[in-house]
Input
Amino acid sequence: MPNDCEKKSTFEYTADGKYNILQYDYFNGACNIDEQSSISYTYNSITKKLTIKYSEAEVYEANVEQLTKNKLQALGEYDGDYDKDGTKDYERIYLER
Output
């Protein structure tokens, strides 16, 4: 669960294919902007696949499980083996207005 600082973060998917990130985190004893960027995304409503292109080499894909005017829930592959058990890990994201 996000702390009070992280709750200030915004993640916006615009109609023109931009994913705008304004992410906050604690460092140096204060709540500061950790990341601010605008990157491209696509969403295929038939396959329910969300693709975020961070760079030519870094592309994130997730299966959208729920999408409404106010909610996005998706399941995507985690970058690495988080628990070091030799099996690919996945992450579920929940975004709400």
